[in-house]
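Continuing the batch. This is chain 6 of the set; chains 1 through 5 are on the previous pages. Same settings as before, nothing changed between runs. Recording input and output for traceability.
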Amino acid sequence: MVSQLWEAFQSRRGVLRFVNSCPDTDLRTAKDGEYVKVTGVVTCGNFPLESSFQRIPRCVYTSTRLYEYRGWDSKTANPKHRRFTWGLRTAERHAVDFYISDFQSGLRALVRTGSGARVTPYVDESVVIDVNPENKDLSPEFLRWLRERNLSSDGRKMRLKEGYIKEGSTVSVMGVVQKNESVLMIVPPSEPISSGCQWGSCFFPANLDGLVVRCEDTSDMDVIPV
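Output for chain 6:
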């Protein structure tokens, strides 16, 4: 289990190092069908999202995960949940199309992350709820969130993490340029892209499937202990 967690951590670090090392593309000179990295500011499209727990409005990507800690005789969060570890009980992830205003060129492009598009998100999630089973006075908002999903609390030690990309956030997007008349778009590549080997850092290649979206704007959210 520890080795699997370490491998996942190393893989994420390797991909982020790859994303950060790629230079930003100037959309003015990008060719149709070219794989690019674009960094800029997010603007919502026609159908913005709201984050699941905190209800942050005008988001283009949201992720909410509920974890439970399993002690010696406590319940499992999932069939593979081992004792004395945190296990994922439920997860929600949503993405919609959005616009990015490119820092390099000032051009605005439509990023096609909605409608079931393949997306590899690297969006930092923060703990927004830490539930101690010894505390009987649970947050009303958290109890509402559990009820809406038919989930029980019943003395479990839980942790809720949430991440999102909201309007005004700075993101980096990696995908394929598609020019359609007057519309400039960034769409998922037809095949996964390899990050390549990083021998100096002992990172092996990772396949990046679909659009890669990187955002760090949610790392300073407050934690609510309950």
